[in-house]
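Renewal narrative, Specific Aim 1. Our central claim is that a sequence can be written position by position from structural information alone. The example that follows is taken directly from our test logs and has not been curated for this report. It begins with the structure tokens describing the chain, in the order in which they were read.
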């Protein structure tokens, strides 16, 4: 018998030295099961402590078998039998603590996903740290818990009294739709509020970027409370420009000067781009609209012989790039382009590059919305983007009446 006992001790010692996961799991499983039994014994239904099979005059509660429960730990998944009572009044503190830890893990997984870690890498990190295998599809399901909160943010009421400046931009990402990889548009609308702080107002995905898409977008924004728009900055997408003209009558449209310059330089040979860029900087850097128009006319004249297309664009399209001159000079550098969204676009690009192809529309919208929400909260709680006092001062200034022309007798 001593020899048998010695062999058993040797086996235990070998399991400890080799860090046998089954050995450790067995120890932890028995310890946790003992804790559950003790919690049930310590439970006091009717104010009386009651052990198993114990009878007494003051006893009012009885056990009612066991309920199987799995619990993931660092040493593996424990197979437990949770004691039950007939009245269902016994609730173990052990699982309450476990659920808090599980929620912390889920929150961490969501944060890793939003920060641009792929679901495959999230699964690998979780398995390494927790000893629990989590598939990338399970990670996707967990981060899907963000959807109700993100949907509520996308449809929230817009509470500012006015949004004088809007910036509208679009980017494209690849996603699987009906078994095919397609390019989906991500439409972004940001606004400068009456207090000078920026806010992201809308994030939507769309199959195509056309007038109907933008009209639906602007209709939803106005239904949520968008008002007081004085200037909309965007690129020269024909459908977008038409939707702006229809939904924001009386507001000005500012064509993004960066997009215009980039497109114009692309129409000349590389050896001419330096000269053209210098002329554009002279136009857009003018102190007022009049010298800007004069510089554009001079530029058109100089390109008319060698590049008639450039000359035509400088004559017919430059006016759309000069709408910012009707607004305070201090605001012009920030309202003349869509560069205000550049930081958000860089973050989107950095994190969507990890994904490359989104598995579906929902995953694309989820990640883009989470990033936009994060950026918008930073803008709203941070420093003012623009000092709006000059803007409101100009709006309060009375407009001089136009001279009345009298017909000759």
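The sequence written for that structure reads:
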């Amino acid at each position: 018998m001593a020899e048998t006992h010695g062999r058993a001790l040797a086996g235990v010692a070998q399991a400890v030295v080799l860090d046998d996961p089954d050995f450790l799991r067995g120890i932890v499983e028995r310890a946790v099961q003992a804790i559950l039994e003790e919690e049930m014994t310590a439970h006091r239904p009717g104010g009386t402590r009651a052990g198993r099979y114990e009878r007494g005059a003051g006893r009012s509660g009885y056990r009612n078998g066991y309920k199987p429960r799995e619990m993931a730990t660092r040493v593996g998944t424990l197979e437990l039998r949770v004691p039950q009572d007939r009245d269902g009044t016994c609730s173990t503190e052990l699982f309450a603590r476990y659920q808090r830890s599980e929620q912390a893990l889920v929150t961490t997984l969501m944060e890793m996903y939003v920060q641009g870690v792929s679901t495959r890498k999230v699964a690998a990190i979780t398995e390494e740290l927790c000893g629990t295998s989590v598939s990338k599809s399970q990670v996707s399901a967990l981060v899907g818990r963000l959807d109700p909160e993100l949907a509520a943010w996308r449809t929230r009421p817009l509470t500012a009294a006015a949004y004088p400046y809007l910036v509208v931009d679009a980017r494209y990402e690849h996603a699987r739709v009906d078994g095919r990889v397609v390019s989906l548009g991500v439409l972004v609308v940001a606004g400068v509020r009456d207090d000078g702080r920026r806010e992201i107002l809308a994030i939507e995905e769309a199959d195509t970027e056309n007038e109907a898409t933008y009209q639906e977008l602007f209709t939803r924004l106005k239904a949520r409370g968008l008002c007081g728009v004085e200037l909309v900055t965007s690129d020269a997408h024909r459908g977008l420009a038409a939707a702006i003209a229809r939904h924001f009558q009386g507001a000005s449209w500012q064509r993004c000067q960066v997009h215009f310059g980039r497109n114009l330089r692309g129409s000349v040979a590389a050896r001419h781009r330096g000269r053209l860029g210098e002329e554009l900087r002279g136009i857009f850097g003018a102190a007022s609209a009049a010298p800007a128009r004069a510089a554009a006319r001079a530029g058109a004249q100089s390109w008319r012989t060698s590049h008639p297309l450039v000359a035509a664009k400088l004559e017919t399209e430059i006016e759309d790039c000069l709408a910012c001159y009707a607004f305070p000079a201090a605001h012009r550098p920030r309202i003349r382009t869509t560069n205000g969204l550049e930081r958000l676009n860089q973050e989107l690009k950095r994190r969507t590059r990890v994904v490359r192809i989104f598995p579906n529309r929902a995953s694309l919208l989820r990640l883009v919305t989470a990033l936009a929400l994060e950026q918008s909260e930073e803008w709203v709680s941070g420093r003012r983007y623009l000092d709006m006092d000059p803007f409101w001062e100009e709006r309060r200034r009375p407009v001089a009446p136009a001279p009345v022309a009298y017909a000759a007798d």
